């Protein structure tokens, strides 16, 4: 069905707003965010073009689209080169009570079939909810397109009443992963403090609160209990880097 003039006008405004923001971010050297806005704006302009019948308007739209596509391609090549050179860095700030930051949402675009080995350094994989967090993270890693064969976990040992719970929980996760052809290597350290996740496809993540950035659900029957995209978060910062060669922590 052909779109009405009002719909096309609305898309044109949305496209120009996104592209204006892209240019602003570009001028501030915030290239990763700029590329996202360029892609969004170009996609909206393409939709406007498909719904436009006037030849002159079509010619002007094609010219605009080509110009923005050329710039977006330059930005993309620059970012790709930064990844290759190990200089890539993106920061995500998760605000207090923000939602939409499940592990899938945060890591998904960095998961591909070249990912076969993962290192997790997090001192607080101890309490029951932290063990469940780690389990959820592992579940994400064994799904397609990943071909993860080994997961390394470096954490601290609970020396209190939760020691047995931590030990048995991690052993159960290890056995479950083994049933899926994945090896979990466990290592404990009393001096580990930093929180870091490394993928052997070059991606590295530093999360201020580690995997434990979700708030406790209000009840077992509240939204967000199972779907972590709906779970409110604690305030934290996620720094994402890319190195050509990722080594063991």
Written description of the protein model:
It is a peripheral membrane protein. Residues 8-86 form the MIT domain. It is found in: Endosome membrane; Late endosome membrane; Midbody. Homodimer. Interacts (via MIT domain) with CHMP1A, CHMP1B, CHMP2A and IST1. There is one protein chain. The protein is of the alpha/beta class and 249 residues long. The chain folds into two domains: 1-86, Methane Monooxygenase Hydroxylase, Chain G, domain 1, CATH 1.20.58.80; 89-245, Endonuclease, Chain A, CATH 3.30.870. 45% of the residues lie in helices and 16% in strands. The protein contains six helices and seven strands. It has helices spanning 5-27, 31-51, 55-85, 103-107, 128-141, 163-179, and strands at 88-94, 117-121, 150-155, 183-188, 196-199, 203-207, 236-242. It has a seven-stranded mixed beta sheet. Strand 5 and strand 6 form a beta hairpin. The termini are far apart. 24% of the residues are buried. Residues 245-249 have low confidence and may be disordered.
